[in-house]
Amino acid sequence: PRNRSSRPPYRLAGTLLEQDPMFGRVRIALIAGIMTVTACVSSQETPSRPAPVIPPPKPVVRPAPKPPAPAPSQAPAALARAIHSLWAGFDGRVGIAIIRADGNWIIHERGDELMPQQSVSKLWVAMAVMDAIDQGQMRLDDHVTLTRADLTVFNQPIAASIGEGSFTTTIADLLDRQMRRSDNTANDFLMRKLGGPQAIRSFITAKGFGAIRFGPGEKLLQAKTAGLSWRPEYSYGPAFRVARSRLSSAARTAAMDAYLADPPDGAAPIAIGRALLRLKRGDLLSPSSTRYLLNLMSTSRTGPQRLHGGVPPDWRFAHKTGTGQDFKGRTAGFNDVAIMTAPDGTYYAVVVMIAETGLLLPRRFELMQGISATIAAAHQH
Q1: What's the CA gap between 288 and 298, in Å, rounded?
Q2: Residue 359: which of 321, 335, 330 has the closest Cα?
Q3: Which of 75, 197, 304, 322 would disulfide-bridge 105, Cβ 3.0–4.6 Å?
């Protein structure tokens, strides 16, 4: 079914500043009581014992009231209409969020609904790793050793290096493989190094990211989405795909339907967009860690025909893609989340999450490239 939405294509938010004068009233009453008691001291007291001198009350220093927050600016109407048109014309369930650098306006379609992240969730693992480095808990040049027991499923180029034995490398190399090549095994090894899925969830909560979930790791997530219970042998060769192919059509459909209805790795596009802006501003990590992670995102090898395909050559672009499983023409999760930076330094968080579609790749690319190209064109005007 085509996208439908009863909400306007963008939402704005404001704040109220309130002050309670009660403190001032209580202080005045207290001072008045002290003066009354002083006036009632007996006039027959001897001159050698003068009445106590009560110092004048100290003035109450109140902080200057904060000026009201500036009213959020209006999102460009033409841009909002163009994005809505692209969204409404796509056959599938799509979430979109576009947020300008200052956060003063948001254009979104289904921006507050949980959409499957798939490998977009690698971004939170990478942030948590860089945060641990900032805290002195690990270093980029720390050596680690991976074995066949660490293998996961699907995209894991590192498997060739592990071979039949083990592979020793560094945290920096795993980050590179995880973010630039979306290697599932590198990602899940880093996740476990930090303490497992719950450690990433705790990081997401501590940073106040909002409506962003983190799943159980690639092995369990992909197995459940397919309708399988995980077995260690699924990590090797075609074993996972062979086991999946033996399931009934009804079992595969039921598993995919359940995943899409309540994705354990679901996230709201607006929440992802806001987290991207905070990363770009340097609010989440140290300056050096921020630069390091953004550089990995800007040199990613994945998804060149997604959002990146519509970005002008003089713009800077940093992103993370995510792609889910296919079954009978349905894809559960086809995503790209990015920071687009114009030549004048203005940047935008751009999140496009195709939760489900039966359209072929060219139409998905057309949607994503249309969104990024439309943002760039609107900025130039």
Answers
A1: 15
A2: 330
A3: 75
Write phi, then psi, for 97 (nearest 5 degrees). Answer: -145, 130
The model's pLDDT over 76-122, given as tens digits with 9 standing for 90+, comes to 999 999 999 999 999 999 999 999 998 789 999 999 999 999 999 99
- What is the model's pTM? 0.81
Burial (0-12, 13-18, 19+ Cβ within 10 Å), 7: exposed
Distance separating alpha carbons of residues 150 and 172, to the nearest angstrom: 18
- Assess whether pLDDT exceeds 70 at residue 5: no
Rounded-to-integer distance, Cα 75 and Cα 63, Å: 34
Pick from 253-257, 309-313, 321-325, 327-331: least confident:
327-331
Angle at 303 between CA 297 and CA 305, to 5 degrees: 125
Paired strand residues for 96: 109, 352
If one counts every other C-beta atom within 10 angstroms of the C-beta of residue 332, the result is: 22
Q: How many residues does the chain have?
A: 381
- The alpha-helical segments, DSSP class H, found in the chain are 22-39, 77-88, 122-134, 159-162, 171-180, 184-194, 197-206, 218-226, 239-245, 249-261, 269-281, 287-298, 361-380
d(CA 162, CA 152): 12
Q: Is 124 left (phi over 0), alpha (psi -120 to 50) or beta?
A: alpha
